[in-house]
Design a protein that fits this description.
The chain is α+β, with helices and mostly antiparallel strands. The protein folds into 3 domains: about 1-165 and about 480-495, Triger factor/SurA peptide-binding fold (Orthogonal Bundle), CATH 1.10.4030; about 185-215 and about 350-450, Chitinase A, domain 3; about 220-345, Chitinase A, domain 3 (Roll), CATH 3.10.50.40. It is about 50% helix and about 15% strand. The chain has helices spanning about 1-10, 15-30, 50-70, 75-80, 85-95, 105-115, 125-140, 145-165, 170-180, 195-200, 205-210, 240, 245-265, 275-280, 310-315, 345-385, 390-395, 415-425, 455-490; strands at about 40-45, 50, 120, 120-125, 185-195, 220-225, 225-235, 285-290, 325, 330-340, 345, 400-405, 435-440, 440-450, 490-495. It has a 4-stranded antiparallel beta sheet. Strands 8-7-10-9 form a 4-stranded antiparallel beta sheet. A 3-stranded antiparallel beta sheet has the order 2-1-15. Strand 9 (about 325) and strand 10 form a beta hairpin. The two termini are about 35 Å apart. Residues about 1-40 have low confidence and may be disordered.
């Protein structure tokens, strides 16, 4: 009905679309019956079973929403939810129940306002026809789905408007949020370095032998398989890389076809990448890496190539050829060219690794004990009236000032900065943390005080902060409404489509 209303107001060119509507409606009404053909049930909602076919169709519509720029339906608080498909079913039903369903005329007007269908701010029937014939058909959709997705977007917009009444933000809340984000933290730290303890740890040959022969750790000391790979990269010309629109599309299609021929050729038993690529005129595109394993692959120049590391490490001596990998300007394929199997290390080969491991473990134990002892002394000294700096000196530690920072403007200059910032957030003024383990040692953290945020800065940021808080509250309100609506609808999902 909606699309019929649109056609009444269009020029004769829309007669073509009328025919397409009839064909599309017939096709999709027939397709709809497929959901009744004994497909596996994945759950229940509103007292009825939902099939995989139905849910997959609903979930595929998000892509159409992106194509059409449906800002409500593709928003993060709706589309990124793991229950997206169920959200769509709930939205449609609840909007109708609440009297928030748009009329056919409103849907028709909204379709004509879709940017994808406009030229110079006006509805363009040619663009509309091109989209419906070229884009929708390739996705298995028709004009009916345009109406459906636009209606859903309008319904969600009205739900959002209804929930806005709950998204009020008070002046005190804005100030509190500003203080939380921009108040500077005055923090001091005292550190012990793991390296200082590691140097003192002695590891005997007997220690090494005992570790090496431990049955529980027999798989820990192995030489990873070493391999070389060849790869052929088919890419756009420099001119095509700069092109846009049809010219770029044609270029991508050209190299995609060539990459497909390459992949097909490698499907034959015993296929050799060099021979196959040469036969396709790609001899100059054949490259081979140096030998590498999992530990050294990132040192290869090819590691910067999108998807290369994952593809190369996934290959084995039995599974030698990768799938075709696409980058923005190219397609390429990787194949194993040399393979040295994984093997167990000898005791002598494993010795450096074992020595380092034992040193690290024993040094960590000694460091933790030392820091616990030092903290106890610092706490007692501060209770007796000494400053943190004085107490640390007496306990054999060195107090240091951590650079002033706020939650919105952190300082990550030191290696333990993330630990310091995260821990200080949980402290009150004057509170000393417990020892915090870091990759290279242990750190004590004292929150001296939180400094009030700048009033002048608050005045310049007040409105933006209020708007951000309100937007966040709107998003939370929508998520909670959807959760409550799903519960009220008796939603019970029995199969996760991500695992099916």
């Amino acid at each position: 009905m909606v699309l019929e209303n649109m056609r009444k107001h269009q020029q004769p060119l829309m007669i073509i679309i009328t025919v397409l509507v009839i064909i599309s409606f017939a096709y999709f009404f027939n397709r709809a019956d497929m959901s009744k053909m004994g497909r596996e049930d994945i759950g229940v909602i509103y007292g009825r079973k939902v099939t995989i076919t139905e849910m997959q169709r609903v979930q595929r519509m998000v892509q159409l929403g992106y194509e059409l720029g449906m800002n409500n339906l593709v928003s993060q608080d709706f589309a990124s939810d793991a229950s997206y498909g169920w959200n769509v079913l709930v939205l449609h039903r609840e909007a109708q129940r609440m009297g928030l369903d748009p009329s056919d005329d409103e849907v028709s007007e909204a379709i004509q306002r879709v940017p994808r269908f406009q030229t110079n701010g006006k509805f363009d029937a040619v663009k509309f026809e091109e989209f419906t014939t070229r884009v929708l058909g390739s996705k298995g959709f028709g004009l009916r789905q345009v109406e459906e997705i636009v209606r859903l977007d309008l319904q969600l917009g009205r739900i959002r408007s209804m929930l806005e009444a709950t998204a009020t933000v008070g002046a005190d809340e804005v100030r509190a949020a500003f203080e939380d984000a921009y108040a500077k933290n005055d923090v001091k730290v005292a550190r012990l370095k793991l390296a200082d303890f590691t140097a003192a740890v002695q590891v005997s040959d007997e220690d090494v032998k005992k570790e090496f022969e431990d049955p529980k750790k027999k798989d820990s000391y192995k030489q990873d398989a070493k391999r070389k790979v060849k790869y052929v990269k088919v890419e756009l010309t420099e001119e095509e890389k700069k092109a846009t629109g049809p010219a770029r599309k044609d270029g991508l299609q050209r190299i995609a076809n060539k990459a497909e021929q390459l992949a097909d050729g490698m499907q034959e038993s015993g296929a050799d990448l060099t021979k196959v690529a040469t036969g396709l005129g790609l001899a100059e595109q054949i490259k081979e890496t140096a030998e590498f394993d999992r530990a050294s692959i990132n040192s290869l120049p090819e590691a910067s190539l999108q998807g290369f590391t994952q593809a190369a490490l996934a290959l084995t001596n039995e599974n030698k050829v990768s799938e075709v990998i696409q980058t923005p300007d190219a397609f390429y394929l990787v194949a194993v060219s040399a393979w040295t199997p994984e093997r167990a290390l000898t005791l002598e080969e494993a010795k450096p690794q074992i020595v380092k491991k034992i040193q690290q473990e024993r040094a960590r134990v000694a460091l933790n004990a030392k820091m616990e002892e030092a903290r106890g002394k610092v706490v007692e000294a501060m209770k007796a009236g000494k400053t943190f700096d004085e107490a640390c000196t007496a306990a054999g530690l060195k107090a240091e000032s951590f650079p002033l920072y706020s939650r919105s403007e952190p300082n990550f200059e030191s290696s333990d900065a993330s630990t310091v910032i995260q821990t200080a957030t949980q402290l009150v003024d004057g509170q000393l943390s417990k020892p915090q383990e870091t990759p290279d040692g242990s750190t004590l953290i004292l929150l001296v005080r939180r400094l009030p945020a700048d009033d002048k800065r608050f005045e310049t940021m007040r409105d933006a902060m209020a708007n951000n808080l309100k937007a966040r509250r709107k998003s939370l309100a929508l998520r909670e409404w959807l959760r409550s609506a799903r519960t009220a609808a008796g939603m019970n999902q029995t199969v996760d489509l991500r695992e099916s």
